Every structure is written in structure tokens, then in C-alpha cells.
Queue: 2 jobs
Job 1
Amino acid sequence: MPKQTFFNLPEQKRNMLLKAAEMEFTRVPFFEASIANIVKTAAISRGSFYQYFEDKDDLYFYLLEDKLKMAKTYFSVLLEKHQGDLIEALIELQNFFLLALSDEEEKQFLKNALLYTTHRVESSFASIWDTYLEQEEFKKVGKLIDQDLLNIHAEKELLHIFKIVSAIAFNNLIEKTAKGLSDEEAIESFKLSMSLLKHGIYNSEVQDK
Amino acid sequence: MPKQTFFNLPEQKRNMLLKAAEMEFTRVPFFEASIANIVKTAAISRGSFYQYFEDKDDLYFYLLEDKLKMAKTYFSVLLEKHQGDLIEALIELQNFFLLALSDEEEKQFLKNALLYTTHRVESSFASIWDTYLEQEEFKKVGKLIDQDLLNIHAEKELLHIFKIVSAIAFNNLIEKTAKGLSDEEAIESFKLSMSLLKHGIYNSEVQDK
DNA sequence: TTGACATATGACACAGTGTCATATATTATT
DNA sequence: AATAATATATGACACTGTGTCATATGTCAA
């Protein structure tokens, strides 16, 4: 988390800095991004930077989480829209990410995030559903999913389903980015994954051994 | 890929260098690892290093792929053992990785790989099944799975299943490492994921809309 | 006006990377 | 055996980057 000093800053200066950071992290992936560049663009001194942030991580994840906030709230909307159908909502959320990847700037930023960062980035993405697993909203949505559509017996399993789909979704984004798939190919791929997940990959005729 | 010069090296020297690299990448994650440390331990000059390798990446992924080779061949054995039952084989393969995570040295190396690296690392892990998708062996194994147990209609879907399970498996390793789960908890979690995947997460009573 | 506190600054010590001119082996050719 | 041609080795060096710190400058309350 940025230090208090950062939040005390006049809004304009704060935005200037964030904008500069965004530019730098769009230009190159995290590990190549240089603080020197950021402070230069933002027209602040190097020393000041360290008054605001612990280090590069601190700034980066603040920025990333901020960008993902929108996705979080959007997912709520989608779940409502699809009457609690998890998979349908997810497919549309994935579409949203793919769309974001169409704006050239956002595209590059996300690409840098997806390809060159790590467990922490993945966690940030996964945290989109964190809210559901803790909050009131979860009960509402959870119940809706639970009773109507899903093949689950305990809350633990629902949590697992979230884990599985987020792993697949994240993977799908990486695949698209790494292999340069088109939006259509990527969403096709995601839909197929979701369909397999929906009905299971084992033939139901053959039962468990 | 390391340069030819590296492969021309006397075996002892080559191993010395690999050993030194392994030590460094066990000590700290990739981005903190320093070439200076490696050449010091290996008792070669800095210049020599760049005769052998393009850069740090080059060495690192050579080392990582090498370590994963074992897993690749092991997976063949497991598939045979479980008569082509993909999921059962996978569960045992996951066990193998978890076991590797018990040797303190290997544990730290893998931890550094899982937490601090990226798409390329994930690709390396996923490449465990690459062989199956290209080679002769695939046909053997593929057919076995295809006809007996899985609910798939085209080869494309089998490829997808590999993608899905590898995403989940990789995720499971990261989860274990990041949250410090015990081997038992991790494998329990993986089994649950696999079970959900097997039978699908949607209730079969309610059919597709 | 003063003092206390918050913020700003850039020079600096340190650590790391990749390169290059030069030195030293090794191997091939006469 | 002498020489040429080729491959390998070396570490100093130019460069880029980080995080810190002593010092300067603002701000606000008493």
C-alpha cells in the first residue's frame, strides 16, 4: 500500500504520478520498468517517489488492483443479468477482458501484466471473486447458483469451483496474449473449456471405479 | 538455448556451472539471482558466462526444462499404470511434484519458480504433455482415454482437457506454495478439483438452456 | 516569530548487466 | 616443428538502475 503521504498529495499531482506509472508499465513489463522513467515523466524527484511508495511493487499492485476494481463490480452485474448462472456470467466477463485487450494501451498494459508477472498478479485477478466468498452478496448469489444449477454439496465445493474457473480464465487470457489469438478464437476456446467443465470430462456412462 | 560453446565444455566444468546456477536459483527467485554469484561459485569469469549463454533467461530455462524432463517421462509411466485413466495419472503426478517439494532444496527451487516467474514457467510445466499431442505415443494414449473414459467428441477437445487440467494442476502447486498448505491438504484440494471436473460442475438434472 | 512537523530533493554508495579488447589455448595446415 | 586459423577465457569498463540520507524547503499552530 502506498504511504499516507501519497494520499495527502493534491489530486492533480497524484494523478500525474499514476498516469506516468501507467505509461511506464504499458511501455515495458514490470521488471523492466524503471522508477527513473516514472519520476521523470511525473516531474517529481526520485526521493519523493520513496516518500510515497515502498518500492516499485507497491506502486504497481496499487495500480493493478485499481484497474481490476471495475471488473469486480462488473461481475456482480453480470451474475444478476444471467440469473446467477456462473458460467454464462463468466463467459461475458471474459469477453470484457478480451475487449479491454482491444484498446491498444490497455492491451499492452494487460499483456505486460499477464506475461511477465507472477503469482501475485494471478492472485490479483483471482481476487475478483474474493468479495463473494466473504460478503453478504455471496449468500445471495451463492444460494442462487447452488440450488438451481450446480452439482455441489457443500460450500467448500463452490469455493473450489471459483478456483477452477479462475485458473482456466486466467490461463485463457495468457494463451490469447502469448499466442496472439484473435478475440474470437480466445472466446471460442474459453467457451469450450467451460462447456467441458459444465458437463464433466468423463463419460457419464462409465462410472467411477 | 545455451550456445554450442557450452556443450563443448568438459563435463566436469559444465556440471560445476549447472550446480552453481541451481544453487543460486534455489537461494533466490529468478529476478534476484545474480550472474556474479553464479560465476563466482562456478569459478569461471564473467566473460565466459556470456560465451555459454545468451543471458540469465537462457540458463534458467535450460535448467528448468531439464528438471521437468523427468516428470515428462514419468507421466508416461503413470498413464500406463492407470490404464490410460487421465485423472488418476494426473493425481499421482501431482503427488510426485508435492513430494519433490519435500526435499528442502528442490522445494525452494520450485517455490522460486512457481511464485516469482511467469508465463514462460507455466509453459514449461504445461509442456509436460506436449509430447503427447505431437507424437506417436499420443495416438496410443489418446485412443485409450478417448474411447474408454472421456466424454469427448474430437481431438480438439482432448487438447482442451489437457489445457484445463494443466491450468488446475499448476494452480494447485502455486496455492500450496503460496499458502503453505501441507501435502495432504494440497492433494485433497487437487482431488476435489479433479472430481468436480470429472463429473461436471452443473447439475445434470438441469440441462443446458 | 518561532518551532515542530511534513514534504521535497538530488547526490551518492552500491549492485548488477552485457561488451570488448586482449590473452591464451587448441586444432589444422604446411 | 612451425605457423596459421580458430575457439575459448578474462576482467576492466561503461551503463543502468536502486534505495538512502543529509539537507532544504514548505506549512501550520501557538
Job 2
Amino acid sequence: MNPNPSMAPNPYSRQCPTRLVLDRIADKWTVLIMGLLRQRPWRFNALLREIDGLSQKVLSQTLKRMERDGLVHREAFPTVPVTVEYSLSALGETLAGSVNVLIEWSETHIKAVVAAQQAYDARQSGARQ
Amino acid sequence: MNPNPSMAPNPYSRQCPTRLVLDRIADKWTVLIMGLLRQRPWRFNALLREIDGLSQKVLSQTLKRMERDGLVHREAFPTVPVTVEYSLSALGETLAGSVNVLIEWSETHIKAVVAAQQAYDARQSGARQ
DNA sequence: CAGCATCCCAAACGATACTG
DNA sequence: CAGTATCGTTTGGGATGCTG
């Protein structure tokens, strides 16, 4: 698919496979899920309860994509009813710290962002008069 | 909006303002744009040409959001026709390195991801028979 | 418990035309 | 050049019901 397989990956090119990867890891649910899996393994419904606003359908899709991309490991235990545990793969571990930085940045700089938004909105409504 | 303003921010809660911030910075276009602005200031149409697959409409929306969030600075020069330059704000600088790690991760681990995808797909088609 | 299948709606996006 | 405005389509996602 990459028109220049011999060249270095370039996510600014539409066909580059790194673009597909970036599309997925630069995703809010992926970031939040990895933030939890970084702590310990989680079960499906535990993740669902923990992440407010995430629907069962989207969690299912996201976990499946992450499993396909090799970021998470899925293990089903033959209990009744079945128990499924999600954990980070070795590959996922290499990414987890990086995405967690985004969560930490949000927490650290939230006040500055909200202040910037209010200043921007005030400028706009003032300019519009 | 945050039901517990006295508590630490918690992006896993739907109402937490950090969630809104995370929604925006964990976005593929934002990551790619910041990756470029990190190098030097860019003009609107230069960004548009550089980022393959990004439409004018979405670039416009994304830059406006980033400006409102205080991540980028927009400066218009009174030339004819007008010249507009986008650059990182001080706040944006604090984030730029972190998001760039995601781009670098994509480039570094793209082979492992594609291999994982192929292995997954092979398992699936095999299991389906 | 851990999902999948279906229906349905709202938001996102591309394409196009137009403007200071 | 650097956008805005509108429109039609596509996609994502919620809600619900069902299954191993």
C-alpha cells in the first residue's frame, strides 16, 4: 500500500501504514483504556464500568482493534460463566507510558486550557459586537 | 461541570473537564498538526498540502479548536492577499513533545503492528473454517 | 459474564460554491 | 491566500434484544 516501501515511514502520507496505526492510538478511548491496563489486567465489564460514557459496543470494537494491532492480550478462562481478562502485551507496554503522558498533560494543564477557552470566547463575543 | 471540583481531575469521569481536553489532543489530526508546528511556524495552505487526506474544512475546524484551547497562536499579516501563520503557543510547546512520541512510536513499531494484524487475521480465518 | 446483531439517529466529513 | 457557508452523504455510536 505504501507507494515508497523503501523510504522511511511518513504518517503525513495518506497511504502510509503508520497513518493507520496513528489513527488508532491517537484515539481517546484507546488512551483511556491503556491508562487502566497499564495498572493491572482488567475484565470487560470492569472496564465498561470504569470508563464513564463508553458504550459496550464501542469498548468491544476498541478492544478487538487493540488486540488485532497486538497492543493487548485477551485471555478467556473456562469458568461458568466465562471470565475474560485483558492485559497489555509486550508491544502495548512500549506504548502505554507514552499515551499516559497525554492523560497526565490533561490533568496538569486543564486550568490553563479552560482559561484559554474563556479568554478566546470573550474575545470573540467582544469582537462580534 | 465537574461534580467534585475539590477532587483531583479524573478523565475517567464523563463530566470531568480533562475528558474534553483529552478528546481533542488524542486526535489524529491534532497530533499530526502539532508534529509539524513543532518544527516551525506554518501557513494554512502549507499545512493543507503537507497533511495528505486532510480537508480544508477539517483543518480549519481543528486549528480553530487548537487556538481556542490555547495550543496554537494565529498571526495574520496585513499583506495582499493576507498571510496567516500558525505556531505553537507556550502551552502548546509543553504538549508538542508528548504527542510527537506517538508519531515516533508509530514509525518505530509499524512492522510489529502489521505483523500482529496479519497473525490475528490468519488466526481468525483459520478458526472460521 | 462477555459479548454479537440489529435498528436508528446524530454527528462528522467531503465536495462545492463563494468572500474579504 | 485564508478562509466561511451550505448541502448531501457517510460514518460512528446509542439503545435494545439476544446468546454461549
